[in-house]
């Protein structure tokens, strides 16, 4: 057998292209030489395992600069060879951020970077407010999989302590021995490139100087290396804005501060004790990300563990700022991002921030302990500290953005986001928030652990759906026109707020609350100025010109000239008043009287809240301490098929409400009390076997004589409960078994008709107002009545 080195052969060219694993030799007739050639099989089926020795990469946690450079060099070379799958072997890799880009690993397009089991990438301690361990800027068709990425949260440097000596700095940058001045030690920008990018020097105790000077140099400090200086530096925190550098880091990397202490002389001992604070204008350091995507498309991130970043585990956004808004393209917004089977934990700011990209899928991830220390309790983060945050902040950019709620055309940001089968838990301030995403679906996720933010989406975002999620010891906040179908809550709550068309159905709540308010668009009764046809409210109404409104007269009567059948538009709007027109921007409608007080004006679509098939329960109640765990304030709206067990129900409108009744159909209350006001209540059942609530279990209507709104009760069953008729109540076709009937002594009148009463007590002897109560055409069986003439009994039958 003949052995030879290929490089020793005359007809082989290894100069232009070195061979690698799996390369073959092919004859190039133009060179008259054999050259390395890639196999014909695809790079995806023949992954390239990065040779650590060849690229000077250490996997023992040492030599961060060389290791970072080696990984990037290997990826760049693989890209040049059309390799599409690179594998990093197991081991611990120390990484160092670049001084200018604040990036460790630059991902290439059309490449899968795989970290094998046991592969740990550990970011070296740094002081930069910004960093990205992996940067995908404008990358297309990329994948990162496997391994563990660890940020520097536990050792990160947020500020510097700078020592001073006696002496100053001359205008030319040379140092002097001025006794009335102090100057800092030399500050090295290379050691703290990010923190010093926009630096702030804080005021120093015992020094009364009005400001400071600073001098910047290249490499060394002398008059020949001075790059620039300023004598007008102002101390933080009074001056919150940071100061910058006169050149790029390679040309301006040293700095000295100088302070005139003439007004506050210091001894040498006092000067030696100074440790001045220097930090960054961006002092929160919340932009240190594990993986950052900027304007990237078709990206997959899977089976990666990311922890302890000073910002987010994963951050995805649009590419870069354009001076001319017309230069933005849809591709630059980023799209088709797929994040699955990852473990994202203990980062300071967020688990995932989706800050612009569209068509994003987030499936089967664990996102937990964001903003928390290793003990799982101590908060060590920076706001918002959510598991997932969808927030492009489009309104603060110059990107022409599509916003359907504003009838605004443009580019899509944060559109079509699908979040499924994730376990999101124990995050410091919130689990999920959608600030401006459109068409967002959350399905079959589990959210666990109390925090103030819970799970929510801002009310103006369209097409937000919550489907079959589990909520444990936290809260889902339903806003706007959110669609909720299926939720299981254990020690968890569902809250409604800022509702403008929400549908909520098929929810089970155990040991939790269903509560909140739905009052959007209801304005109430105005003061009317007939000569000017102006409607005025005591507080701002919040509408602009052209708002669509309607008039109703459930109580009172609208002014002559106004029709309850017409849609009107606001015109001549002021903060607390407006006129109305029958056409947009049309002539104000003239009225001839002020109507009868009690009518209301509302936005034409108020009352759009639809709640159905809700169960709120606990296994047992030890006493009758009031626990209204189904508690709603509503203006209009519809509630159907609600079951509450061992808790109270409280459903009422605003105190001065004179609008459309709340429609309630099919309430089942077991072992609890209830309060209903301003409602039409039908097909409901109220039963209990335990001792009732002192003073009565069921309250119908309000005892406040100022409010004359009607309460209609139809086809309901009351068993072993006490019912108080406090308001203007009409109760038809109902059944009373072993119950008691009472009424407040007020001007309101109540009626019970065509009902069945058995083993029931009527306790109305204290009524003092004529016709206060009427019981007509009912059937009595073993009924005890304690009444006087103020209760009318008409055509009742006793069995």
Structural write-up:
- This is Right-handed parallel beta-helix repeat-containing protein.
- InterPro entries: PbH1, Pectin_lyas_fold, Pectin_lyase_fold/virulence.
- The strands form seven sheets. This protein has a 35-stranded parallel beta sheet that branches. The protein has a 19-stranded parallel beta sheet. A seven-stranded antiparallel beta sheet has the order 45-51-48-49-50-47-46, with no helix packed on it.
- The chain starts with 23 loop residues before the first strand and ends with a strand.
- The protein is elongated and about 120 Å long.
- The chain has two helices and 74 strands.
- The protein has 799 residues and is mostly beta strands.
Separation, N- and C-terminal Cα atoms:
119 Å
Average pLDDT confidence is: 94
Structural class: mainly beta
Into which percentage range does the β-strand content fall? Answer: 35-45%
Low-confidence stretches: 39-45
Give helix % range.
under 10%
What is the β-strand count?
Answer: 74
Number of helices: 2
- Biggest sheet character: 35 strands, parallel
Give the radius of gyration: 36 Å
The shape is elongated
